[in-house]
Amino acid sequence: MMSTKPLGREERAMVSEEYYAAVEKRAHVFPLPPDGFDPLSATATQLEKYGLPSRPDARSEPGLFLFWGIMLGAPIRFITPQFPQRSAVRTPLFALHRHASSSKGQRVSPATHGI
After folding, report:
1. What is the number of structural domains in the chain?
2. In this predicted model, what pLDDT tens digit does every residue of 47-105 receive, in sequence order?
3. Among 33, 48, 39, 47, which residue's Cα sits nearest to residue 80?
4. How many Cβ atoms are within 10 Å of 96's Cβ, its own excluded?
């Protein structure tokens, strides 16, 4: 059985800071579509503007086109996501552990908390 040693407070803060910095680089909030917006009849430009998946070709990808229609068909409700401020996040959502017996350096994995 592999023994684990929990990361220290400074190590957790560094991992957490790196994680949130990486998320901030990738996260983007798109503008909300206007009331009554119908994604199924929208142009490719409108879909892109509002961050919606592009329309697959119905002939070459019929299954994907069907799924796209179900996913974006009525009823659909658009919301503005609320992200926590980085300073408000004190601890990661999961505990990180360093595997002491790893000969290839540190390996980080989520701890089990019955979730």
Report:
1. 2
2. 999 999 999 999 999 999 999 999 999 888 888 877 666 665 555 555 455 444 444 54
3. 33
4. 18
